[in-house]
Amino acid sequence: MTKSILISKYRKALTLRNYSTNTISAYLRGLEIFLSYLAAEKIKKVKGEDLENFFFYAHVSFRSLKEVKSPIEDLSI
């Protein structure tokens, strides 16, 4: 599945869940950052270590952790 298709499907899922526009934008931004990281690192199958490295790479603060973590958790379902 391409990055644009994945993002489009995720946007639709968030809309169907009745998330606010701001929440959708934040979650999509987090997902885009994560997908860009995976592509740059050539990661095909994500492991826990990859997530830790990503959070360090993205300089994710505790305050913005949910914005980045939620889309990643949703993808694993």
Protein described:
With 77 residues, the protein is mainly α. The chain has one domain (3-75). It is 73% helix and 0% strand. The protein contains 4 helices and no strands. The chain has helices spanning 3-16, 21-41, 48-57, 65-75. The radius of gyration is 12 Å and the shape is globular. The protein starts with a helix and ends with a helix. The model has no long low-confidence stretch (mean pLDDT 84).
List the SSEs and their pairings.
Blueprint lengths: L2 H14 L4 H21 L6 H10 L7 H11 L2
Helix pairs in contact: 1-2, 2-4
Keywords:
single chain; 77 residues; mainly alpha; 4 helices
What is this structure, in a nutshell?
The protein has 77 residues and is an all-alpha fold. It has helices at 3-16, 21-41, 48-57, 65-75.
Number of domains: 1
* End-to-end CA span: 16 Å
- Cα Rg: 12 Å
- How would a textbook summarize the main sheet? none
Share of residues in helices? over 70%
What's the overall average pLDDT, rounded? 84
Number of helices: 4
Q: Write down how many β-strands occur, each being a DSSP E stretch of 2 or more residues.
A: 0
What is the 3D shape? globular
**Element string (H = helix, E = strand):** HHHH
Task: Return the structural class.
Answer: mainly alpha
Portion in strands: under 5%
